[in-house]
Amino acid sequence: MRPTTKDLARVAGVSLATVDRVLNDRPGVHRKTVEKVNSAIEELGFVRNASAANLARGKIYRFVFLLPKTGDQFLGELLYRIDEANSAFSAEMIHVDVTRIPENDPHRIAALLATLDPETVDGIAIMAPESPQVRDAMLRLEERGIDTLSFISGQSRTTGGDAVGIDNRAAGATAGRLMGRFSGARSGKVLVIAETMQSRDSLERRLGFDQVINADFPNLQVLPSLETWGNQARAEKIVQTSFASHPDIVGIYILTSEARGPLQAIATAPHENGPVTIAHERTPFTEAALISGELDAVIAQNPGHLVRSAIRILKARSDQKEPLASQETIRIEILLKENT
Questions:
Q1: Eight-class DSSP state of 37
Q2: CA distances (Å), 80 to each of 84, 87, 148, 260, in order?
Q3: Is residue 140 over pLDDT 60?
Q4: How far apart are CA 26 and CA 22, in angstroms?
Q5: Which residues contact 144 (CB under 8 A, 6 or more apart)?
Q6: How does 221-240 read in b/e, with b if 16+ C-beta sit within 10 Å?
Q7: Which pairs from 53-56 meet CB under 8 Å and 24+ separation?
Q8: 42 and 77: one domain?
Q9: pTM of the model as a whole
Q10: How far is residue 128 from each of residues 24, 96, 193, 199, 265, measured CA to CA in Å?
Q11: Which of 93, 112, 294, 327 has the fewest CB atoms below 10 angstroms from its CB?
Q12: 130 in the same domain as 196
């Protein structure tokens, strides 16, 4: 049988009420008494049941996902999975809210983070492009006792920090390998489209993609990344201009998690080479594009796993425990027409 608080009280020679005060860091306990209880904990190998303790105290974990204001089907899938997780984790006294942020305005994001109160928020998961303002605001949050986690779009953290998402460099390298294999012996150029290259995930995907293409597929020349900024008119213009300027495009790589805009722009632009097209994230649109042949492959990550992992990590940090790394590793999935 695992030791209980009654066993701790017996071995330490104190009351149950004293054990409770020590376990919950309440004041009014003499230092020597605290040492006795801690010695009993070591002697018995006592492991506190955090869930039972939280239930007894009525503790509620309050987490916030900060997600972009703009977005399409992938963002919608994340919102759906957050609602799903709220129901699934309710028995563990976990409540999750969503706040939408202006993803292209780091000063406003930093100002919003500065308003968060540790009395009402235990931890945040933020999906935003990398910027010094957001990074520093996250560090200040941690100093105030609010745990922070980079969600999908990571921040470069000088002090480390938690993050949830795939290894984006490996994901880009995977896309490069597929692009090279699917292109076969054809020579030509590869068009790369991103919503913004300020996003760390896009930068890392591009680095991984270039590494594989440059090393193993000399028949392919990767063009500079083009940013749509989430604007459909801009996406159509840069795609049309690219095809007009480079008639030898044989491949298209869409870095952004929202591929519908670029794919619609590609569908309306005249091109003759039947380019190999690879995108990121499974959505109803990319799934339909795979089935119709508009897309050759999708590099994906499970949105439900992303959300659940973020919640579990924030809860572990709130309980001052280490997350289980093997459980929180997000796999890179390769989707083809045949396995949708």
A1: H
A2: 6, 11, 22, 19
A3: yes
A4: 6
A5: 118
A6: bbbebbbbebeeeebbebbb
A7: 53/23, 53/24, 54/93, 55/93
A8: no
A9: 0.81
A10: 36, 18, 18, 7, 25
A11: 327
A12: no
Which amino acid makes up residue 173? A
| Pair 95, 147 in one domain | yes
* Domains contained in the chain, number: 3
Q: Helix 303-318 crosses helix 73-88 at what angle (to 10 degrees)?
A: 50
The per-residue pLDDT for range 218-236, each reduced to its tens digit, is 999 999 999 998 899 999 9
173 and 296 share a domain?
A: yes
Q: Is 283:198 a contact under the CB 8 Å cutoff?
A: no
> Quick one: pLDDT at residue 158?
43
Asked whether residue 204 falls in the same domain as residue 264, the answer is yes
Burial of 183 (0-12, 13-18, 19+ CB in 10 A): buried
User: For residue 229, which phi and psi values (nearest 5 degrees)?
Assistant: 60, 20
Q: In terms of Cα–Cα distance, which of 95, 16, 32 is closest to 24?
A: 16
Domain carrying residue 10? 5-48
* Residue that the structure tokens 């990074």 belong to: 135
